[in-house]
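quick one before i forget lol
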Amino acid sequence: MLAGLRGKSVVVTGGAGVIGSAVSRRLAAEGALVVVADLDADAASNAAELIGGDAIGVGVDVTTPLGAQASVDAAVQAFGKLDLYHANAGVECMVRTVADFDPADFHRVFGVNVLGAFLSAQAAVRQLSAQGNGGSILFTASIAALMGTGGMSIYNASKHAVQGLARCLALEVAGTGIRVNSLAPGVVESRMMDSLGAGLGALAGADGTTYKGRMQGAVPLGRYATPEEIAATAAWILSDEVPYLHNEFITVGGGIAPY
């Protein structure tokens, strides 16, 4: 068992998604009190029901101040406090060149990935600061925050922005006992990666299956990550196993070196 998770109250946004649900399950298995927060209220409730125990599911829209605050309020109302917050909600972009990109998709992606992360962090840090007992905030960034990919300009730019937000927040709360870090998955078995792979394959003149094979070949470990592998790293970062881990960007990419 990881130290410092049992009895901790934690919010996971995008908690009904592939990575979010895996993180929620892992934290609950470690004894945490989990709020599965997702735009899809039914999916959030179903995910919490599958976890069982004290887990609860709530429908929130983190792209609004009220929605982000509601995710924090749910934890406080259910468990009397907030200890940990995983700002994980995110969406992929349409795969298009910059010249062909639809500005509406820019607003959609940045609305969830950047504004949603900002408002979530704002609500979380206010609550944690008011409690005065420290805590931990984790952002889901992406290995895309370290590189460029043709056809994915808006997604990559949004994840660059998330990492900039995390860096600034970490400096602002340094010394308060609140740790801030970012988790950067590489390619993960998920609906999102399938969608991006199909689009990137089409852009390269290949089908999604062929493109996935190329992507797997580019990963030194030779495969996509499982959601559970990402969740294990998220739980470790949030835990007390690494109390000195702050303002860090942790990649989980199977050996991909994007630098």
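fyi Residues 103-131 form the longest helix (29 residues).
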